[in-house]
Amino acid sequence: MNILVIGAGSIGSTLLRECEHIDRIRRCYVLDHHPEKLERLEDRYPKVVPVEDLDKTLKDTDLVVEAASQEAVKEFGPMALEAGADLMIMSVGALVDEDLRSELYSYDGDIYLPTGALCGIDAVYNASMADVEEVTLETTKPPTSLGLTDIDKRKVLFHGPAEEAVKLYPKNVNVAAILSLASIGFKKTKIKLVCDPDIDRNTHKITLKGAAGTITGISENVPSPDNPRTSYLAALSAAGAIKKICSDVKFI
Ligand SMILES: NC(=O)c1ccc[n+]([C@@H]2O[C@H](COP(=O)([O-])OP(=O)(O)OC[C@H]3O[C@@H](n4cnc5c(N)ncnc54)[C@H](O)[C@@H]3O)[C@@H](O)[C@H]2O)c1
Q1: CATH of region 121-221, choose from 3.40.50.300, 3.30.450.20, 3.30.360.10, 3.90.640.10
Q2: Pocket flag, ligand 1, residue 203 (CB < 6 Å)
Q3: Whose CA is nearest to atom 3 of ligand 1?
Q4: Angle of CA points 214, 178, 241, to nearest 5°
């Protein structure tokens, strides 16, 4: 299997590191706005091949992994599926756009949405096949993560539908989108955003109440070493998703 990774940043480089250990992956094509990043990766990881001719590369690619930006989902998503590859999306917030979502979903190829910085999405997805009363994401961040300086005690910044949260707090868009898409949608999923000066990790607590019971998943995330805005768990979720695709025994 050959993959094409769009974005050689924090998620992309973690993914490429892990792909070196996955036997079924033969080649990892990589594309980035900053070619100097590719040189470093090429030196370190033998499977890495910088993209020279995108059309030619797509013909030799089984899975395109977007690990770049919402713009890159729009630019490369339809192109990847059109070329017959499957698509993994890390900038899941791009799928808030209903038109883009319908376009991408209309192709035959598979679309993979890793669980990112969240834990418990598997159970929430399964439980959403039965009746659901409510789904909530409570995200708590230190003031620095929210770009705030004047907060000296715990404060709820927002509590309402995901649809509104993604517009007011775009930095929280990926987790809100993953949970909404895996459960009851952007209109019904509720988001609570809390700023807390006494914590140093971004914490996400997801809760579902419904016919299957009550499900709670909490992740207290350590930042990625090379991008403090991205949780290390989110980068590992991309690598974990590829490992699942390539393994004979699948935890799904
Ligand atoms: N799903 C989740 O839970 C989750 C968590 C964290 C981050 N993300 C998202 O994943 C994406 C990547 O995160 P990261 O931490 O690796 O970011 P990063 O800034 O460390 O790396 C992104 C890389 O992509 C490149 N890039 C951006 N747009 C590009 C384009 N159109 N074409 C080619 N290269 C492009 C940049 O040059 C950069 O090297 C971001 O959009 C981020 O919002 C998702």
Answers
A1: 3.30.360.10
A2: no
A3: 116
A4: 100
